[in-house]
Give the backbone structure.
Amino acid sequence: MEICPPTPTMYSVQNTSPGERSLMRFRTIGYLMVALAISACSTNYSAVERPQTAAPPPAPSAPPLAKPSGTVEHDMGKIAGASVGGMIDRILSAEDRKKLQAATQQALESGAPGSATKWRNASTGAYGSVTPQPFFPMNGTSCREFQQHINVGGEMATGYGTACRDSKGIWRIAKNG
């Protein structure tokens, strides 16, 4: 049975005008960030529980989303349907998504914990960063949390996620908290 990835659990919205509509828009952007983090994949996702620790974890971040070969795999339709519907194509351009995907892969595969990998699309003005946290083992796999910031049209949104690498080297979204 195929399980769609969970949506991010924490969001921060800055520079928004009052009103629920604005808040919903930025939540959507937050969902978008996590969905885009794995938007080059073509695999199924399994939900996994994250182990509890005595000390609070570092700033949430997500696991790498790439195979050992360095390519990311993901089914954008499944993620988009589960989290933000058709908003992905309306919010970020194809070039924005490519830049975000490349930064996410680089950060999760080889980024130092807590070090942001930045991306920017000069033609649209969209920009952001991906900050991975340390790898941690879970059920015999390597997992990682990450945090993404995306700025679209001068408005910033933040999303958090976690993913684990399966036995074939493919990163899959894991259940948060």
Summary: The first helix runs from residue 20 to 37. Residues 1-24, 34-88 have pLDDT under 50 and may be disordered. Helices lie at 20-37, 76-83, 87-91, 94-110.
